Amino acid sequence: MTRAFDMLVIGAGPAGLCAALRLNQLGHHVLLVERSQRWPRPQIGEALTPGVRNIIDYLDANEALESVPILAGKPARVRWASEAVETVAHDGAVVERAAFDAALLRLVLARGVEVLRPASLTQVDGTPGAWRVQIVTPDGLRNAEAHVLLDARGRQSRREPQRLHAPRLSTVWAETAMEPLAPHADFATRVEALGDGWMWGAALPGGRYRVMFTFDPSTRDDAPEREPESVLRNACARSALFQSMAGLPWCGPPRMCVSTPYVDTLSWQDGRIKLGDAAFALDPISSSGVEKAMRFSLQAAIAINTWCRASDASERELAQRFYESRLVESAARHFAWSAGYYGQAWCAESPFWRRRSTPALTPGTAAMSSLGDDAAARVDIMTRALRAELAHASSIRPLPNEPVPPLPLHSPIRFARATGIVVMPCATGDRVTAHPALQHPSLDHPVAFWNGVALFPLLDMLTRATHPLELIAFLCRSMEAAKARQLLEWLWSKRVVEPAVFGANTCPTS
Ligand SMILES: Cc1cc2nc3c(=O)[nH]c(=O)nc-3n(C[C@H](O)[C@H](O)[C@H](O)COP(=O)(O)OP(=O)(O)OC[C@H]3O[C@@H](n4cnc5c(N)ncnc54)[C@H](O)[C@@H]3O)c2cc1C
């Protein structure tokens, strides 16, 4: 028997689980397939950035996650910008990842998503919008149909010609038991730059301490010490913060994985859409992979919802553009941020750090010839968009820290010369719609909404000299006067508007 679904999500990590929850909430019939035999299955990536909390709230998943072991409020000891050790407050949390993913999977089931585990796809055919898949389960083969296939399989080591990579990285890690009274027992999170890589350590729920070393594997290809055990021990012995752990027994053999950041330029193709690490994998330095995977899934769910319910081809194209613009912006910003962070290390002049402090995305070694012409053209467009966004993100400088004069309420203002207007796809409610947005060097990206307020009603008025009081009176038709004034003050503080000097300002470019 063939079962029909709207969505087939492959992979029950944070990306797949989040997409399943959101698409189910939007009324789609979802099937989730997870291959792990063992469940809850162990997973790296336990440190959660504070933004995960908002996503959990948004998904109404707090109750479901109540039982997940969590450690929060531990300070961090950091040796990064200088060789001296600093202690800083740390507002993230460390969870038991296996329990976190398992609790979300229980919620997915409780909300009505169908789940097959352990299960994996053996065959995919059909056409975009009408996929037919064969799924192997312990009870035999199942057949299913789905409009959209969502690939949330996580980091994939298979080489894909369409991937762009940052310089190579590998990570080795192990855990040691924390003896509360032992001299090395310091439950603080530790982050340390070494000449040839960086170390990270954190207490995990359950009395273990994770030690991790991230390095360039190409410098060790011929080195005598390249076994995970000796790489990790050696790094601990050379470090200031982890030295006391160099001789401790590990709870199990150290494990090693590829951690090179990458972005897949063909993440949206013919109703096959990638989420989370399958679309782009971050440098572990940010400890924000889980948040990024979940946030991107929420944005992708809106694009997918729009694509499925679109009334015409232009709306479908808008949905894809929205997804791709989020992917380009999120990936490029992260690559730029990581490069900036590598550049701050006390040892930033050594080769490991120099290579990583200049943001660059390079194609892998897999042959592009295996892609068809259309796919190759798409790769080219996305590559150019990613490189442009990377250059833009790397050039963003904060506004000079000069005091901003108060907004002149009694003399006219208008858009500054550098302000432009672009039309871009935005998420409004459950759908992607096109909106005019403001562009200005002081804005990180084009802005169509300010605190949930669409800016477009103002655009026409601000292309000509207008008195702020007149603008506030106009805005008061849809918001309170105080909020209207705050909006104008925000535009003013960002230098998006300026005093109207007759004959000097020009209209914004679109
Ligand atoms: C060394 C290292 C340290 C990290 N540390 C952190 C950290 O501290 N904090 C943080 O936020 N992030 C961290 N990350 C990143 C984080 O782990 C990932 O970004 C996050 O897990 C991505 O979620 P995901 O759902 O995309 O993929 P995953 O979490 O990898 O989930 C993918 C799921 O798909 C399943 N699957 C795979 N193939 C198939 C298949 N063929 N069929 C069915 N199911 C399949 C897998 O079993 C898995 O359950 C780290 C990453 C690395 C490499």
Description:
The protein has 510 residues and is of the alpha+beta class. Among the domains are: 168-258, D-Amino Acid Oxidase, Chain A, domain 2 (2-Layer Sandwich), CATH 3.30.9.100; 413-499. The protein is 31% helix and 27% strand. The protein is built from twelve helices and 28 strands. The protein has helices at residues 14-25, 51-58, 62-65, 97-110, 228-238, 289-309, 313-343, 351-357, 373-395, 456-462, 468-475, 481-493, and strands at residues 2-10, 30-33, 47-48, 70-72, 76-79, 86-88, 93-95, 114-116, 120-127, 130-137, 140-151, 163-165, 170-177, 189-194, 197-204, 208-215, 255-258, 262-264, 268-269, 272-274, 280-281, 362-363, 413-415, 420-428, 431-439, 449-450, 453-454, 497-499. The strands form seven sheets. Strands 1, 2, 8, 9, 10, 11, 19 and 20 form an eight-stranded mixed beta sheet that branches. Strand 26 and strand 27 form a beta hairpin. The mean pLDDT is 92. Bound molecules: flavin-adenine dinucleotide. This is FAD-dependent oxidoreductase. It holds the Pfam family FAD_oxidored. InterPro entries: FAD/NAD-bd_sf (IPR036188), Flavin-dep_Halogenase_NPB (IPR050816).
Question: How are the SSEs placed, and which strands pair?
Answer:
Elements: E1 2-10, H1 14-25, E2 30-33, E3 47-48, H2 51-58, H3 62-65, E4 70-72, E5 76-79, E6 86-88, E7 93-95, H4 97-110, E8 114-116, E9 120-127, E10 130-137, E11 140-151, E12 163-165, E13 170-177, E14 189-194, E15 197-204, E16 208-215, H5 228-238, E17 255-258, E18 262-264, E19 268-269, E20 272-274, E21 280-281, H6 289-309, H7 313-343, H8 351-357, E22 362-363, H9 373-395, E23 413-415, E24 420-428, E25 431-439, E26 449-450, E27 453-454, H10 456-462, H11 468-475, H12 481-493, E28 497-499
Parallel strand pairs: 1-2, 1-11, 2-8, 5-14, 11-20
Antiparallel strand pairs: 3-7, 4-7, 5-6, 9-10, 10-11, 12-18, 12-22, 13-16, 13-17, 14-15, 15-16, 18-21, 19-20, 23-28, 24-25, 26-27
The structure holds flavin-adenine dinucleotide.
Flavin-adenine dinucleotide is lined by residues 10-16, 33-36, 43-48, 120, 152-155, 171, 257, 259, 276-277, 284, 287-291, 293.
Organism: Trinickia terrae
Pfam families: FAD_oxidored
InterPro entries: FAD/NAD-bd_sf, Flavin-dep_Halogenase_NPB
